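Practice problem. Given the sequence and the SMILES for zinc ion, write out the predicted structure.
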Amino acid sequence: MPTYDYLCEKCGHTFEKMQAMSAKVLRKCPKCKKLKLKRLIGGGTGIIVTGQTPPPDNRIKGRPEHIKF
Ligand SMILES: [Zn+2]
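Answer key:
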């Protein structure tokens, strides 16, 4: 089960919460009780960020090698 980092935009409280992938995103700050929680991306463990850029394939004929992706 992945661990998510939460930040409260109201009081600045941060904490980690272990949640199932299908679990609802928390909204209520346990400290100030405001609905100002924000789930941080990239924190915790077990989270794979998608959106990888595929490596350029220089084997394709006719594609200049100076083109960068
Ligand atoms: Zn708070």
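Check your answer against the key. The CA atoms of residues 2 and 19 lie 6 Å apart.
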